[in-house]
Amino acid sequence: MVRFVETVAVARRTRRIIWQNFAGTIIIDIVGIGLAAVGILNPLMAVFIHVASEMTFILNSARLLPAADRLTGQNAIASADDVSLAGGTRRGG
Length: 93
Known about the structure:
The chain has 93 residues and is mostly helical. 59% of the residues lie in helices and 0% in strands. The model is unreliable at 79-86 (pLDDT under 50).
């Protein structure tokens, strides 16, 4: 039951961050289109603003990634079973 509660919490947090990214993208696009329509924003500046906003939204989504120190068991990026701590080589095949 605890895992279910944790899953629901992660799902709600994910949905909230997705909506933040979606709303941010729409707002940036609307403002950019408006500024370009009246001639204030040239295409080169629009590209820089668009790329910067997309990077911001990607970094916002990265908040959903678990912290490395909280990972355990099968959720670990590289567990002791997969990687030799001494040599850093992969075991098994």
